[in-house]
Description:
Helix content: 55-70%
Largest sheet: none
Order of helices and strands: HHHHHHHHHHHHHHH
Amino acid sequence: MDQPSVQIAYALDTFYLLVSGAFVMWMAAGFAMLEAGLVRAKNTTEILTKNMVLYAVACVMYMLCGYNIMYPAEAVNSIWPGIHFLLGSGDHSVESVLAGGDGAPVYSAMADFFFQVVFVATAMSVVSGAVAERMKLWVFLGFAVVLTAFIYPIEGYWKWGHGFLDKLGFLDFAGSGIVHLTGASAALAGVLLLGPRKGKYGKNGEINAFPGSNLPLATLGMFILWLGWFGFNGGSELKISNIGEANNVAKVFVNTNMAAAGGLIAALITAKWLFGKADLTMAVNGALAGLVAITAEPLAPSPLWATLVGVIGGVLVVFSVVGLDKLRIDDPVGAISVHGVAGIWGLMAVPFANGGSSFGVQAIGVASIFGWVFGTSFVVWFLLKKVVGLRVSEEEEYEGVDMAECGMEAYPEFKVSK
């Protein structure tokens, strides 16, 4: 291309990446609204605080070391990238952009950082809902520092930083494993050490429902996440400045949308079959499960196949939520099921549509991500439990963590049922 065309393409692709990142950043609001709607009213302020602060923590820690660990200038080997600090303030020069060829940058390095950092925050947001209503706020934020600075960047390097999973041919287009399974694995480790909420499970195997405080808010959160996912998946194409890339982006948008629709409908029908009622919370999680599942490969499938990927994700999430409750694994918002079970399904479904990978390689990727994240997270959670404790007191949990941790209520004008 001539120089003006190169500059226009660079500007367009940079702008597209920035706008896509902004859409993903907006998913933080979706997680906050979803979780605030699905927890009890007495825990709303604290869950909102967690979602705000974890985003800020992710941004700071990824700037300090996470980004350079995930994308090192020179890695130690394909498994261990080494420890590298501080995002630089420079960007690509005009000369490097105009040089052309395969090695020439096609969008701003700062745009790439911004697009990557919002993914880190998404992974940590998954953890927030699973440990809700009984974990200490500052313990959660301490874990957020470790996950966003080290745990996430290292496994992200294995694929997106051209580490060993990338060399094996493992495929994960926008992060069913790297982002969503990571969040779910960290959450599972925390939940196992944290234990269930008081009164959730009875001595004789009873499972007591703790209804969410604001289902309109939870539904709004789902729609915000659905919208943000177009940036999550569509932005992961990284370019839009030529006909081929523009067509790819359009297909990713369509497939992302169809998977969410398929997941929602399938979860609603499954819930009706199992419980005899149209369960709104299952429909919400079905849409999210479809989105998580298609994230591993939203480009290769046909719209019909993308819908089927979402349908299976929607069915799986209902059975997973029920199954985890039977195992007495208390996840107030269904995050482990949505992001873990549906994430694994999405990764293992990739070879059906994209012949560039195999089921064996995809399974290695699943095992590697889960093993690393669950193992390291379990160690961090365990150390935090021994040093400062994970849970608020039984009295504070009964009164609600809003007053215990934040000193204010989200709905002070209402008498909150305990």
